[in-house]
Amino acid sequence: MNLLVALAVSITVLVIGWVYVSLGIPGLGLVVWAGVIGWGSFYAAGGGL
């Protein structure tokens, strides 16, 4: 598995987990698209490295 495929799989798992938590627990008031855009911005800016 090359690096690009591994990155795509890990992002997919993170997004699935985020959707499950944000839709599965409605009392938290989380928004799916805002979380995904926030993660994308974080990693595009360097990911905290």
What is the compact description of this entry?
The protein is mainly α. The chain is built from 2 helices and no strands.
Task: Give the oligomer, counting copies of the same chain as homo and different chains as hetero.
Answer: single chain
Helix content: over 70%
| Strand runs, count | 0
Elements, N to C (H/E): HH
Strand content: under 5%
The DSSP helix count reads: 2
Instruction: Specify the biggest β-sheet.
Output: none
What is the residue-mean pLDDT, rounded to a whole number?
A: 88
Rg over alpha carbons? 12 Å
Structural class: mainly alpha
The poorly predicted ranges are none
* Shape assignment: flat
Kindly, what is the distance between the CA atoms of the first and last residues, rounded to a whole number of angstroms? Answer: 24 Å
Fill in the keyword field for this structure.
49 residues, mainly alpha, 2 helices, 71% helix
